[in-house]
Design a protein that fits this description.
Layout: H1 4-8, E1 17-18, E2 21-22, E3 24-25, H2 36-49, H3 59-79, E4 87-90, H4 93-107, E5 114-118, H5 127-136, E6 139-143, H6 153-159, E7 164-170, H7 182-191, E8 195-199, H8 211-214, E9 218-222, E10 233-237, H9 239-244, E11 255-258, E12 263-265, H10 279-295, H11 297-315, E13 321-324, E14 333-338, H12 343-352, E15 355-356, E16 358-360, H13 365-371, E17 376-380, H14 387-403
Parallel strand pairs: 3-15, 5-6, 5-7, 7-8, 8-9
Antiparallel strand pairs: 1-2, 4-10, 9-10, 11-12, 13-14, 14-17, 16-17
The chain binds ligand C6P.
Length: 404
């Protein structure tokens, strides 16, 4: 049984006051809060286990290596990847996408090739591809959307061709909440021989991901958006494709043999993991994923759907409020604008009431251009949020409206 109070009790930050008020956190798409077990695992590492990994023969180094590699296996199982060597630890989603984009520019793209991304991509899934395209003279092709925030699948099909070398697509939009039909999009891209990268930053904490069922070639996510630490993320890639990419960065751990003139590289996954990694973050990511596994992603999705449904029904009753992102298949995000109210002013007034939302372009400026707005206010929900908190948000918005 899903018990929101039991879940809330595991997040120490939820007991604190912000500006003298009960803390209501609706900025979960930016980062999730951390449960006690994740905090403790980071603490224990530094207090009791501090050591570098993959290098030492002493006890703590070997222990740390074992724990870090345990997380790799946890992530493999979580994503249903075939091999744990297909799981590369990175700093986060941005880093994972840059790794693949760098590899594509260095070894797979040539002038005239096409990279397809949609209007709703996060800047992290736009700029790395622009950098790659600029290096070789490739082109960026935009997959269009409609005003509800749905991908136009028929247009997508028409845009795909043998020139398409890569499609990189957001699984769930951080701004609109749209759940994209990625499985279908992947299959269509494969028909023309393109590889597909999925930006899973907003997906992993909200829906079950099975990379083999999706048949995606690369999948990226960040630990901090799934109740884990910042500074640790994941790139999944099919083994043969990761093998075909050159290293991203040079340094310790990614080498096999170094001479002054030439280096041979380590095998997967270490070929892409140069330098001392975020050891504590990697180890604690195991706790975050186990936390999610124990609740169950189906239960999480069901509860969040009820939050979204309730919040949407309440928000649309507010005079002058327009939802941005009204796709049928949506995850727990409400972006909106209110006539005569600037999102930043609203965000500030909500903050004074202890309510955290995000305001701005949410790192999706092309999407703001598409809707011809400078910014939205975004409330994004997670498993510890309650219907009462949503009532608090609605009241907070009403109060702010009266003041503005
Ligand atoms: N979105 C938001 O408030 P990093 O920073 O690398 O952990 O994640 C980047 C990123 C990539 N893709 C998507 C879909 C994202 O939502 C994000 C992060 C946050 O919406 C911060 S801008």
């Amino acid at each position: 049984m899903f018990d929101v109070n039991k879940i809330r009790s595991q997040f120490p930050i939820l007991t604190r006051k912000i500006r003298g008020k009960d803390f209501i956190y609706f900025d979960n798409a930016a980062t999730t809060l951390k449960p006690q077990r994740v905090i403790e695992r980071v603490n224990t590492h530094y207090a009791q286990e501090s050591a570098n990994i993959h290098r030492g023969v002493h006890y703590l180094s070997e222990f740390g290596t074992m724990e870090y590699e345990k997380t790799r296996e946890t992530v493999r199982a979580f994503l249903n990847a075939k091999e744990s060597k297909e799981i590369i630890f990175t700093k986060g989603t941005t880093d994972s996408i840059n790794l693949v984009a760098h590899g594509f520019a260095a070894s797979k793209l040539k002038a005239g090739d096409e990279i397809m991304i949609s209007t709703m991509e996060h800047h992290s899934n736009i700029v790395p591809w622009q950098l790659a395209a600029e290096k070789v003279g490739a082109k960026i092709i935009e997959i269009p959307i409609n005003k509800d925030g749905d991908i136009l699948l028929e247009e997508y099909k028409k845009l795909l061709s043998t020139k398409t070398k890569l499609v990189s697509i957001i699984a769930i939009s951080n701004t609109l909440g749209t759940i994209n039909p990625i499985k279908e999009m992947i299959a269509l891209a494969h028909e023309v021989g393109a590889e597909v990268m999925v930006d899973g930053a907003q997906a992993v904490a909200h829906q079950k991901i099975d990379v083999r069922d999706l048949d995606c070639d690369y999948f990226a996510f960040s630990g901090h958006k799934i109740f884990g630490p910042t500074g640790i993320g994941v790139l999944y890639g099919k083994e043969s494709l990761l093998d075909s990419l050159p290293p991203y960065q040079g340094g310790g751990d990614m080498i096999d043999r170094v001479t002054i003139q030439k280096t041979t590289y380590n095998e997967l996954p270490f070929k892409f993991e140069a330098g001392t990694p975020n050891i504590a973050g990697g180890i604690a990511l195991h706790e975050a994923i186990e936390f999610v596994n124990e609740i169950g992603l189906e239960e999480i999705a069901k509860y969040e759907e009820s939050l979204l449904h309730y919040a949407t029904s309440k928000l649309v009753e507010i005079d002058g409020l327009t939802l941005i992102g009204t796709a049928k298949n949506k995850a727990s995000v409400n972006s909106f604008v209110i006539e005569g109210v600037h999102p930043h002013d609203l965000g500030t007034l909500l903050d004074q009431q202890g309510i955290a939302v995000r305001t701005g372009h949410h790192c999706t400026q092309p999407l703001m251009d598409f809707y011809q707005i400078p910014a939205t206010t975004r409330a994004s929900y997670s498993i510890y949020n309650t219907m009462e908190e949503i009532d608090g948000l609605v009241m907070g918005i009403q109060k702010a409206k009266e003041l503005l």
